[in-house]
Amino acid sequence: MFQGSLRYPNYRKVIDTDLVGLLIDPYASTLCGQPVQIPGELMGYGRKDNQLGYTLKLEDQSGLIYLNYLPNLKVMFSKPNEIISQMETLVGESVLATGW
């Protein structure tokens, strides 16, 4: 439990931002992630062979970003069609992506 709290950021302190804000932030790092929320439109999704999870394309007013989406592993292996149908309904919709 303690290791998980060190590995994953605290989502109670989420920063609303856009892609340009993340790119020009000198303190943004892949090693020490900070939780952010990016509003945008989900443009599509995909899955490569030998890759766990899905790749989502999110577009906001400043650009396009690829997101890694890892659903619950139990659901991913027992009901993969359910996850795909959920993503298909979200394509073209405005979403709020939260992550680090």
Describe what you observe in this structure:
- This protein is an alpha+beta fold and 100 residues long.
- It has a single domain, classed as Beta Barrel (OB fold (Dihydrolipoamide Acetyltransferase, E2P)).
- It has 4 helices and 5 strands, in the order αβαβββααβ.
- Strands 1, 2, 3, 4 and 5 form a 5-stranded mixed sheet that branches.
- The longest helix is centred in the C-terminal third of the chain and has 11 residues.
- The protein starts with a helix and ends with a strand.
- The mean pLDDT is 79.
Radius of gyration: 15 Å
Structural class, from helix and strand content?
A: alpha+beta
- CATH topology name, in short, is OB fold (Dihydrolipoamide Acetyltransferase, E2P)
Number of domains: 1
Order of helices and strands: HEHEEEHHE
**How far from one another are the termini?**
19 Å
Number of strands: 5
Mean pLDDT: 79
Largest sheet: 5 strands, mixed
Shape: globular
Under the CATH scheme, the architecture is: Beta Barrel
Give the % helix.
25-40%
User: Can you tell me the CATH superfamily?
Assistant: Nucleic acid-binding proteins
Low-confidence stretches: none
Helix tally? 4
CATH class: Mainly Beta
